[in-house]
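Researcher: I'm preparing a figure for a lab meeting and need a structural model of a single chain. I don't have an experimental structure, so a prediction will have to do for now. The sequence is pasted below. Please return the structure as C-alpha cells so I can convert it later.
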Amino acid sequence: MPLEPLRFAVLGAVRVFRGDAELELGGPQERAFLALLLVAAGRPVAVGEIVDVLWGAAPPRSAVNVVRRHVGSLRRLLEPGLAARAEGRRLVRDAGGYRLVTDGDSSDLLRFRALREEGRRVADRSPAEALELLTEALSLWRGPVAAGLPERARAHPAFDAVDRELPAAVRQAADAALRAGRPDAVLSELRRAAARYPLDEPLQAGLLLALAAAGHRSEALAAYEAVRARLAEELGIDPGAELRDARDTVLHGVPEPVPGGSAEPGRASAGAGADAAAAPAHPHAPVPDPPSPALPPPAQLPHDIAAFTGRNVELEEAFALSGVDGAGPGTVVISAIGGMAGVGKTTLAVHWAHRVADRFPDGQLYVNLRGFDPSGAVLDPGEAVRGFLGALGVPPERVPHGVDAQSALYRSVLAGRRVLVVLDNARDTEQVRPLLPGSPGCLAIVTSRDELPGLVAAHGAHSLVLRPFDAVQARAFLVRRLGAQRVAAEPRAADDISELCAGLPLALACVAARAAGHPDFPLAAVAAELREAHGSLDAFARSDASVDVGTVFSWSSRAVSAEAARLFRLLALHPGPDLSLPAAAALAGLTVRRARPLLAELTGLHLVTEHSPGRYAFHDLLRAHAGELVHERDTEADRATALDRLHHHYLHTAHAADRLLAPNADPLPPPPVPAGVRPEPLADDDRALAWLTAEHAVLLAVVETAAASGQPVQERHACHLAWSLEPFFDRRGHWHDALAAQRTALDAARRLADPALEARGLRGLARVEGRLGLHSRSVPRLERALELFTALGDDTGRAHTHRSLGWECDQRGDLPGALRHNQFALDLFRALGDRAAQASVLNSVGWYHAQLGEYRQALTHCFEALTMLQHLGDRYGQAATWDSIAYAHHHLGRHPHALLGYRNALALLRDLGVPYVEADILVRVGDTHLATGDHDGARTAWRQALVLLRGLNHPDADRVEALLNARDGHAGAV
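Model: Understood. Here is the structure written out cell by cell.
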C-alpha cells in the first residue's frame, strides 16, 4: 500500500505530516537540521553549514559523524523501510552537502513564494486577484520561522532571511489592497508586522497609507510620529524619503516630489559571470586594479644594438617583405640553418623592428616565447596573448577563459590597427598561431631555431634564412667592436678568432668583449687562449664544425673572478625568464652589495645582459653552458642549497607583500629564513605591488618548478608561495595565471597528504574558478574545504571559506545566502579576536543588508567597520566602507550624507591609484546629485567618470556616455 504524501511546515513551528498524521521529529538538533533543509528550499546545504547551525562556533570533533547519523535518521523517518545506508529519494546527497526534495505542494515556504510571485504577476492586470493570492500567502504563516528551536539555532541567518520575507509580503499585499480599493483587508496583518519590525520604513510607510485610505488619518499621523521618535532614539537619524512621502500623502493627499527623482546607483557584483570590471569596491568582491588611464601605444621592443653590423642582404630582403610603405601584412619567419642558436636571429629581428617601427603608429609588441629555454620553461601562448591584451589596454577582468577565446579577442583588438608584433624564440607553429594578428595592417616577425614549415604553409609566412657570418662579415663585426686599426694590424689573428667562433655572432661578441676589455692584449694571444680552451656544449655544436662553440663560452667564463664564475654557474638554476640583483644574491648566498660587482663582471663580458635596469638574463646558449658547468663543478647538495635559498627569498618577500595587500587574510606563516637569505624590504602596499608586478613571471615559474621538484619541502614552498600571491592576482585581475598556480598548489598539497594544505588549496582554486565563472567547480570545492576546515577545528579557515561561499551566493543572486555566510564569518572572527578580518567582513555584512533594502542595519555595521579600519590603517578597506555608507544614505534619501561618504571614498581611492573604482563611484555621485536636483553636479561627475573609463578602454564607458546623451537629449534634464 503506497504511503500518503508528506507535507512540511516551517513558517511557524517545524512540523511534518503524512496525510493527517503528524510525525515525531525527535530532539532539538534533529528539528534544527530539518528546519535548515526546509528554509534552503531545494538548495543543497553544505555539511559545514549544518555544523554551524547545530553547534555554532565550537563544534565537537565528532560533528561530521553526528550529522551523518541525523541524515540516516531523517531518511528512515521520511521513507519507512528504507534499507540501511540507502540514500532514498527524499534526502539526497548533492554538491558536497544534502538537499531535501520538496515542491510547492509539500512545502509551506515554497507555496508561500509561489503565491507571492503569482500575485506580483497579476498585480497590474487585476489588483483584486493579486490581493486574494497574497492574503492566502500570508495565511500560511503561523509564527516566526522555525519557532521553538533553540535560540542558538534560530539565530542562523538562513532563518532570519526567510523571516524578512514576511514584511515584504505584507507590504506587497498592502499595495494590492490600496489599488483594489480595499485598504482594510490587510490592516490587521500590517499592524502586526509593523509592531514586529518597528524600524522597517517601507513597511511603516505602507501602514500609514493603508490607515489613511481606511479613514484612520489621526492614527496614521500618530504612527508616523512614533516611528520618527524611535528612529531618532535608537539610530539617531530622521525618517527617509519613502516614509516622509507617506506622511505627506496622509497630510496633503499627494507626496512631495523629490527633485530629479531618485536614481538607482546601479551597483554591480564582482567576478566572472557578471562583468567583473563593474564590481564595487568591497572586500568581499575584490576589484583588480586596471591599467593606468590614457595608456600610450605599447612600445615593447628591446633596445637596439648601436654596434649592429652586417646582414645587409638579409635586411634588404626583410624590408622588401615588410614593404617600403609598411603595407606588407605578412608573417615573416627568421630561421637559422639546422636550428643553430647564437646566429643572431633576435638581434636582426629587433634591429629590423626598430627600423620600421614608425610605420606602425598603434604600437610594437614583443615577447620572448622561450621556446628552447634549457630549463624547459616554454612560455604558454595563453600567457603571452594575455600579456599582449594587457599592453593594448584590455582590463584583465575582460579577458575570457581559454586560449582560443583570448586569441579571438586579441585579433579583434588589433582589427583596424597598425601594430608590429615580434615573437622571439618560438618553439613551433602551435605556440605562434594564437599570437598572429589577423589585420592586414600588422606585421609579425617570428624567430625560431625551427624553420616553422607549418607557418609558411598555413599562413603564407615568408622564410628568411640566417647563416653564420662568413670571413668578411665576421671581420667587419670585429672591426665595429674593436676598431679598424687593431684588426688591420693582426688580420690573421682576426680570421682565426672568426673561425674559432664558427661565425656565430654571439660567440664573436663574447670574445670581442674580452679583447675590448684588454686593449693591450694582442689578438694573437686572444686567439691562442681561445684555441687552448675546452668547452662542452654538445647539444648546440654544429654538425659541420670542427670546433665546439662551447669552447668560446668556457674561455669567457674562465676570464672572470672565481666568485663571478660561481655566480654564473648558479644563475642557470634560476627557473624564470630573468632575475633581479637581490635574487642573484640569494642564489649565491651573498649580500646585494657583494653580488652587484660580480654581475657587473658577467655583463662586461656579455655572459649576462642587463636587459632593463636591475634585471638580468642570458642567452639560452649561455644558460645551457652555465647549466653544464654547475652540474660538473658544484655538488648536488650545493645546488639544492642554492635553490632553497632562492625559493625562500621569493617566498618570504611574497609573504610580506601579501600581508601589506591583504591584512585581513589568513596566510600560512612561512618557515624560518635560512642563513644567506635577505628578503627584499617592502615599505608599503605600493612597493609590494611594484615588486609583485616585476616578479610576476618569475613567481609563476618558481611555483611550477618547486612543485615539480619531487621534494616535500619544496612542494610546501610551492603551496605557500601560490597562496601568498592570491591578493596580487585578484587585485590585478590575473585570474588565468592564478588558476594555473592554484591548480599546481592543490596538486602538491594532495601529494603531501596534508588535509590542512588541501583545504587551503581547494579554497584558493575555488576562488579563482569563481572569478572565471566556473561556479559548477568552485562551489563544490568550497563546500569540501569547509568540511575539511571543520574536521580540523580550523575556525579561521572556516570563516574565510564562509566569506567565499557568500560571494558565490552573491553571484547567483542569493543575497540572503550571501548575508548568511558573511554573518557566520563575522561570528567566527569575533570569537577568534581577529580584528582586521572582523572589520572587513563587517563592511560585507553591511553591504548585503543594503542590497536587501535594510539600509539602517547596513549603516550600523559599516560605521563599526569604518572605526576599526581607520584604527588598522587599511585605506582600501576604508574606501570600500565609505562607499557602502554613501550607498545606504542615498537610498534613505539622505543625499548630503551620501555625497560626503562618496567624497571620502574618492579621496582614498585617488591616493591609492584605483581608477576604475573611482569611476564607478563617480557614476553614483552623479546619481545622488541628480536626486537632489543638482543637474550640473550630476553632469560633471558623469563626465569625470567617462574620462577615466575611456582611458581604461572599459565597456562601462558606453553606459555612462549613453546616460549623458540621454540626459542631454531631454530639455530640463541634465
